């Protein structure tokens, strides 16, 4: 599975995941920003700010500047959360487009020291968007309808997420049990510690 991921250009999928995520964000009204999300300790405002920070951090990593933690922590929603989300999505999409798949991305929020191959790093950003789209949609009671293509690719990435480093406060919680006949979306959420 890892070999397949390393040989996949996730940039087109990441752009589609951005669209999925932004379609959920566009439905969030300012009064809803204080609502809780499925991510423990995060309101919608906190989750959206986190994703802006992640977009900025991944964009910096694509430019070879990912080691600076400030790139991963300074996301700001300003007075327009939708505009902030769109701006950061455009920033990271452009940075990924200019990056070489032969380079390494330094991702201090994922692991201290060392880098990740670009394809794998972009796959991390991709799966985050797909799942955070569910978090946002769930918080506001909106539908979450990723395409089969997004779900198939996300399940492959989710399958390699290690068990160590999971738990409260981490990117993903421990896997939740799922039934053999569960739909792909439900299996994805369960694999990444969400309770559908």
TrEMBL record:
Pfam family, one: MDMPI_N
Annotated region (Disordered), positions in chain: 165-186
An example molecular function term from Gene Ontology annotations: metal ion binding
SUPFAM superfamilies per record: DinB/YfiT-like putative metalloenzymes
Mycothiol-dependent maleylpyruvate isomerase metal-binding domain mapped to chain residues: 17-137
InterPro entries (alphabetical): CHP03086, DinB/YfiT-like, Maleyloyr_isom, MDMPI_metal-binding
Domain of life from the UniProt record: Bacteria
Protein name per its UniProtKB record: TIGR03086 family protein
Organism: Actinomadura litoris
Source species taxonomy: Bacteria, Bacillati, Actinomycetota, Actinomycetes, Streptosporangiales
């Amino acid at each position: 599975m890892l070999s397949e991921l390393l040989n996949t250009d996730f940039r087109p999928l990441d752009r589609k995941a951005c669209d999925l995520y932004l379609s959920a964000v566009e439905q969030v009204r300012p009064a809803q920003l204080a609502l809780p999300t499925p991510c423990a300790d995060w309101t919608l405002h906190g989750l959206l700010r986190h994703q802006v920070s992640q977009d900025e951090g991944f964009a910096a990593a694509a430019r070879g500047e990912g080691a600076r933690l400030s790139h991963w922590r300074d996301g700001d929603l300003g007075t327009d959360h939708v505009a902030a989300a769109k701006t950061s999505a455009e920033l990271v999409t452009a940075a990924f487009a200019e990056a070489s798949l032969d380079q390494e991305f330094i991702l201090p929020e994922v692991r201290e020291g060392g880098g990740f191959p670009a394809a794998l790093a972009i796959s991390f950003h991709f799966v985050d968007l797909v799942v955070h789209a569910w978090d946002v949609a769930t918080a506001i009671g909106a539908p979450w309808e990723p395409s089969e293509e997004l779900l198939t690719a996300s399940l492959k990435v989710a399958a390699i997420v290690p068990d160590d480093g999971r738990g409260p406060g981490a990117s993903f919680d421990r896997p939740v049990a799922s039934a053999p006949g569960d739909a792909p979306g439900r299996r994805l959420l369960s694999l990444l510690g969400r309770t559908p």
